[in-house]
Amino acid sequence: MKRKTILPGQTIGILGGGQLGRMMAISARQMGYRIAVLDPVEDCPCAQVADIAIIANYDDPEGAKKMAACADVVTYEFENVAVQTVEYLQENSYLPQGGRLLEITKDRLNEKAAIEKAGLPVVPHMPVRSEEELKAAIDEIGYPSVLKTTQGGYDGKGQYVLQSELDLKEALPYIGKIPFELEKWLPFEKEISVIVVRSTAGETSVLPVAENIHRHNILHHTLVPARIPEHLRNEATQHALQLAEALELVGTLAVEMFVGTDGKVYVNETAPRPHNSGHFSINACETSQFEQHIRAICGLPLASTQLLSPAIMINILGEHVQPVLDQIHLLKSAHLHLYGKDEAKTGRKMGHLTILGDSADEAIERAEQLGIWKI
Ligand code: ADP
Ligand code: MG
Prior knowledge:
The protein has about 375 residues and is an alpha+beta fold. It is about 30% helix and about 25% strand. Adenosine-5'-diphosphate binds near residues 146, 183, 186 and 217. Keywords: ATP-binding, Ligase, Nucleotide-binding, Purine biosynthesis.
């Protein structure tokens, strides 16, 4: 594929119109690009800030055709884009990220194999595609462990934590019908992530290591810098860079990791796109993950992602929207980002807040002082 430089004034096509597409589009528009978005939902978060909205299903050939007709470069904001759409756009448009990374990261077993091939540690795991494989995996890995669907899982969906044989009951009806993997439960100190971006020119950049705190398996808040020793921050950054190199990344890869109680950094999973745990970069870094992504796919030089200030990023879920709006007068030191979604369903990611501080702990204190949410 011939690499091109896409200049401001040209049109960036985004597959998927959620908040990640919206924040990519906002960065791109600041730089003078035009935006076309493909999404089945009219008035989706990205369509609200786009020049052209193509309303079509992700596997609709007509939608793909329309996208090819108006975009000078195409990117995606989520990993479950239909294979045929990706293939069509690779042939008939310019999709510098290619389709291989999507193929790899779509499936946990493929993804883990690629991580191991890159020489990085992952937690012990085995495929579970039948009752026999389940038995073999339990014999080998034992309890506590976690059964995960190999495809389509997010925010802990499709996962069964197994403390003992009793917990198998819930998952049993699905065994053999959909593919799973069994993973050993890793006692961890922290969950962290590193977002790495690589441009079409082969230039690479990483965001500061983020510390992630989940509630009910959904990211609740992110702290930067991650409160771990510097050598572990370096190790995590090195892991992300090594993986980007091994995968010949073009675009953005978010790498979720565990800092085990054994002091080792394990790679948990990846996402081939900007990530919720990188939202702090909009307010706290010289260049955000979204701007860096746009630079990478357009063939522009990457910019510095230096951390300008420690920060906390707190997700606003459906149930938090009204309390935040009711107390909006308290938002003096908090940067509010809302994604323009109409239905504030419980657990749905509606926006986020970023609060800067002199340190991550001080940012937490400020968030607590604001008192509009409980950390
Ligand atoms: P998802 O795609 O749903 O984000 P993850 O693999 O990241 O799936 O799992 C969700 C969360 O469950 C993780 O952020 C972590 O808190 C916990 N978790 C997942 N796998 C393990 C494991 N092997 N050991 C300990 N905790 C785990
Ligand atoms: Mg995860």
